[in-house]
Amino acid sequence: MVAETEAESQYLHVLSAFLAMEPVDSVISLARGCNGGSITENAQRFFWEICVKAAANGNATYAKKLLKKLINEVELENGEVLDEVYEEYALYMLTFKEDILVKDNIRITKFISFLFREGSYKHPSCPRSRKLVIPLQCSLNMLEGDTGCSIWPSSLFLSEFVLSNPELFSNKSCFEVGSGVGMVGICLAHVKAKKVILTDGDLLTLSNMKLNLERNHLNYDDELLKQPGEAQSTQVKCIHLPWETASESELSEYRPDIILGADVIYDPSCLPHLLRVLVALLSKPPKRDNGSLETEDSDTTPQGHSPKVAYIASVIRNADTFNVFLTLVDQMDLSITDVTTELRPPFELLPYMHSYDRSSVRLFSISSR
Length: 369
Prior knowledge:
It comes from Arabidopsis arenosa (Sand rock-cress). Pfam families: Methyltransf_16. By secondary structure, the protein is of the alpha/beta class. It contains 15 helices and 9 strands. It has helices at residues 6-10, 12-19, 24-33, 41-54, 60-76, 83-95, 98-103, 153-164, 166-169, 183-190, 203-215, 248-252, 271-282, 319-331, 340-343, and strands spanning 107-115, 131-139, 173-177, 195-200, 235-240, 258-262, 309-315, 334-338, 361-368. The strands form 2 sheets. A 7-stranded mixed β-sheet has the order 5-4-3-6-7-9-8, sandwiched between helices. Strands 1-2 form a two-stranded antiparallel ribbon. Helix 4 (41-54) packs antiparallel against helix 5 (60-76). Mean pLDDT is 84; it is low at 99-104, 222-231 and 291-304.
């Protein structure tokens, strides 16, 4: 990996926020924080030389907005805008027609950077650079039937949870319901889960998810593509799984150790189907005639095998909907525990992401009684 320049190290949160396409006000605020509240010449040069270069990955419209905001902020302070910044903005004005982009249901690329504190994690899941960057193709048009291609707070929380607790998922078979852009699955592969099964009921979302896996060097039909010098064996599967039509026989084939879900408690009409899926996935495997547990892997034995558990992260936007969920959990003989405080990541891995309110997310563990 290319070593960070001194400027990139100083402005790490600024660059991370830019790549994640945080609100431009937030990005400017982070830059101010690096310079005692001012937008210095060095800060302008960083935006021009580093951030605008990153816009070549397809986020040019966002870069244009940031440059406009940067110029306005410097001028309001009666500061001097660098000629290079003016010239770069003029180039964007001539090249990119924002009105055309708004009309289309476009996909943009966000780079989500999980930043590990020095000395915080000694587990192998912590990258040598202390930074895990995940490129994700997602949608800007989440209100037009494209919610599955958007990045939601609960998926960020669940990803932080996975990366902060690699020992819970390493060498385990993991199954995610409603996988969306695939970020949680990519984090599971990073912590060396044995098998990662990603599912979604929307075919367009599933197609977008597969593109994201490929961008993160994951082969969803076979195994994790090996990086130079590394022996990786995580198997990643992508499955079209509408909850309302999923059969118990189909679900019983997967036998995961851990089930995960982010922001899946949103529609009362979908909840009975979701709970039925969870019940099937959490159920114990059938016994063979000799009384031993039947498992998918011949080297797995029942001794010392952890009980199956589902981790569901959710923002409770509607209390009535959540109460329906709790009622169904009880009716289906499941046990639910709020483990938000107990399992909250000890360190923020997304400290630059001011738009992400992790305090609004709750984490629940669900198991069979």
